Amino acid sequence: MAEAERIIGTPDIPEAEGAGPEQSASGSEDGRRPGSEDGQRAAGEPKPEAEPTPEPQAPADAEADAEPEPGPQSKGRRKIAVLFGVALFAYALDLISKMIVVAKLEHHEPIDVVGDLLRFNAIRNAGAAFGMGEAYTIIFTVIAAAVIVVIARLARKLYSLPWAIALGLLLGGALGNLTDRIFRSPGVFKGAVVDFIAPKGFAVFNLADSAIVCGGILIVLLSFRGLDPDGTVHKD
Asked: Nearest to residue 98, comparing CAs of 191, 16, 18, 206?
């Protein structure tokens, strides 16, 4: 028996120590390297989450350009502000000039400004502009008050800058003369207007009359051009 076993021999059994390194090496060659994603999955470790990509931000200039334009209401408020600004300026200029004329020029000799072509001569006018209609002082007072009310109501639909300037001149001039008619002698709504600008060969007037005339001329020109107070343009 011993002789038979020696002749046949026994099969070679691979050593356990040699199999381990070969399998480890083959595992590394298959792509499952330590630290790789497959290796981490095989080890049961979670996959790291990807960092979110920051969204591109629009430049500041683009944001400024994208701001909405002012609406009709905003534009209307600006035109109303122009109207009352012009009216306040015309009214203040007329009021201050009349105060100076009453204090320094009334009951004195006229002052020549440009020879005999233009002079300052203080007078009291109970009529309308340029000394007309002295017998209708109350009527002209009512008309001036009505003009102020109409302009104030029209301002709510005002979207045209030229119309705002024209109506502002009318409003300032009407307020200037109406102040005289209310607060000056001989009485309320019968007061005489202070005039002092006296061109040669023309009626004597004041700055309020000038504002009213300039506003009226501008309104006529705007009407001929077809421009309405609301900013629309029409052609006949």
From this structure: 206
